[in-house]
Amino acid sequence: MAEESDLEKTEQASPRRLEKAREEGDVPRSRELATFAILGSAAMGLWIGGEALVRQLRHTLAAGLRFQMQTVLDPVQFGLFWGVQLRDLLLVLSPLALLMLLATLGSPLLIGGWVFSGKAIGPDFGKLNPMRGLGNMFSTHALSELVKALLKTGLVAAAAWLVLATQSDAVMALAVQPPASGAAQLGRLLLLCFFIMVTALAVIAMIDAPYQMWQYATKLKMTRQEVREEAKEAEGNPEIKAKLRAQQREMARRRMMAQVPKADVVVTNPMHYAVALQYAGLDGHAPRVVAKGKGVLAAKIREIANANQVLLMEAPALARALYQHTELGDQIPALLYTAVAQVLAYVFHLRSYRLHGGQQPQRPAQIEVPPGMDPQATDAAPGLESGSTA
Description:
- The protein is α+β, with helices and mostly antiparallel strands.
- The protein is 67% helix and 7% strand.
- The chain contains 16 helices and 6 strands.
- The protein has helices spanning 2-7, 15-23, 31-65, 69-73, 75-110, 118-121, 130-137, 140-166, 168-173, 179-219, 224-236, 238-259, 296-307, 316-325, 337-356, 375-380, and strands spanning 9-11, 222-223, 265-268, 273-278, 288-294, 311-314.
- The strands form 2 sheets. Strands 5-4-3-6 form a 4-stranded mixed beta sheet, with helices on both faces. The protein has a two-stranded antiparallel sheet with strand order 1-2.
- α3 (31-65) packs antiparallel against α5 and α3 (31-65) runs antiparallel to α10 (179-219).
- The longest helix is centred in the middle third of the chain and has 41 residues, at 179-219.
- It starts with a helix and ends in a 10-residue tail after the last helix.
């Protein structure tokens, strides 16, 4: 039973499977929605500018029926004459054609989006298999397409019948009306019929679009075995793992940089190291390291600190010791309490002086760290004075 459940497509498609299907040009599409978008744009264009369009077409037709005999007898003039008429006709119809073109290009954005894939237009010799074609004829997709075709035909026929039933007197009156008024009445009836058919197509599109999205999601469902295999493939892919690690490092760096403006002081080396400290005395904890870095990262920390008026304190030995013996979010080691206390005392006295005045505090001339805490002093010569500059 467990093996059978693993082979059943019960899991939703993973992002990787959706991306792969999109690369192959396989996206949800609703032809009924696209058809409605195109015809709906035409209906809107006729509703807004139909009267002006008819006037311009009437003028173009009248101009085309007026010509001189010498124009007909001269092939060059005759060709120029019809070229002008064709140009005028294209200019008259161009706004409506442009509106429909925009609807054609924009309709894929309603469902599926634009997709450019060479695989979709490549040859697929499997489609020449007669057994496969016979299976497609009796598939669920073919049945749904048949139901949609019947529904579309029924709705369009019902729309046409509705126009004829409600406008029967107007249709019968066409036979006795003068040509001008009869043509105008016929145009209004045809336009009404067109609007009702577009409304019927809107109903079909509202049904078909969600169905196509459901059918697409069902088609791309995965078995539990496929999900496990994809996860193993993703975890074992060096490029994906490297990309994930790079993204994680970038996110961690951004989070760290966001903490720099909240720091009380940034201890520097002065150029090679930078460590940002934050102290909230009310919580009873020691100062914490909220950001640290060396090289380019240290320069970025100093830049953000300067931009946010966070004090930069030059203490090379302390900066190296903090960088070496702490991690982000850690409290400072107990051996560095005295050195950090000197820094924070100066920072808080300087804040008080800037706010309230009084005697200006003196910057500590030299901040020493216990032996063994400064990696440079330890590596160079044990017992060397730890306050020396780097």
